[in-house]
Amino acid sequence: MDLFLRTVAVYIFLLIILRLAGKRTLSEMSTFDFILVLIISEATQNALVDDDRSLTNGLAVILTLVALDRLAAVVKRRSQRVEQILEGTPLMLVDHGRVLEERMKKSNVTLEDILQSARLHQGIARLDQIKYAVLEASGGISIIPVDENAELDQRIEAAVTRALARHNETVASPR
């Protein structure tokens, strides 16, 4: 029972520490994946190199962690709030081309991180080509480019509206 309680305590401790460390710490790995990899690798090492009791303990630790992971998955499926607490939520970093510096600072993301993600995933080189940048719960940065056709359509629509307004003014004004 002591082994089970120690395993649960280490799991919860690592979960809290890694959530406080921030999303970028884990990059594309979920918090649960990272914790499982850490502890299972250590338990496996202990089971492989120590005495027979260590083998039993290592297997018990691994089994406990997998069971905790499955339990957490079930609880997350049933409660969106629990999922948000355990996994985090996406965070907007660029909104309509405007850099949200406080959010970037809070999440330890630099402008270079955003531009690197834009280059890698969208082939975008400049900030003015980014409509939205979102720090995902997994730690990755999603980039939504500016739709150049939509921008062109808006400019054409604005020009047509101005031309119609001028036309209406000339028609309405007495000579």
TrEMBL record:
<dbReference type="InterPro" id="IPR023090">
    <property type="entry name" value="UPF0702_alpha/beta_dom_sf"/>
</dbReference>
<comment type="similarity">
    <text>Belongs to the UPF0702 family.</text>
</comment>
<keyword id="KW-1133">Transmembrane helix</keyword>
<feature type="transmembrane region" description="Helical">
    <location>
        <begin position="6"/>
        <end position="22"/>
    </location>
</feature>
<keyword id="KW-1003">Cell membrane</keyword>
<dbReference type="Pfam" id="PF04239">
    <property type="entry name" value="DUF421"/>
</dbReference>
<dbReference type="InterPro" id="IPR007353">
    <property type="entry name" value="DUF421"/>
</dbReference>
<protein>
    <submittedName>
        <fullName>DUF421 domain-containing protein</fullName>
    </submittedName>
</protein>
<keyword id="KW-0472">Membrane</keyword>
<dbReference type="GO" id="GO:0005886">
    <property type="term" value="C:plasma membrane"/>
</dbReference>
<feature type="domain" description="YetF C-terminal">
    <location>
        <begin position="78"/>
        <end position="148"/>
    </location>
</feature>
<keyword id="KW-0812">Transmembrane</keyword>
